[in-house]
Here is the input.
Amino acid sequence: MFEVGFTEIVLILGIALLVLGPQRLPKLAADLGRWAGKARGMARQLKTQLEQEASTYDPLRDTSAASSTIHTPPPAPAATAPVAAEPAHPSEPAVAAAPEASDEPKRE
Here is the structure.
């Protein structure tokens, strides 16, 4: 994305020396170094904590309250409509499946 080479760094330091002066530039550099060190330390600590949490988390053994209150409904019953059987070969006619027996009496 942004590539800063040696010449760009020298140019930035030269402009900072002109703007801030030789008395304030070393203090500013020391402050920036301290802030960068603190930021690196915080990033390292965060990475360590995330790795520890990831190594101890087991999704199959999760017994949190949120996962135990989830209710899954039972599966829906299968449809009982007769289905035509597929022909073994495209030139053969399809055979209709036999109707299933029902508990209702036949009306004549």
In short: The first helix runs from residue 6 to 20. The CA atoms of residues 21 and 41 lie 30 Å apart. The mean pLDDT is 76. The two ends are 83 Å apart (CA to CA).
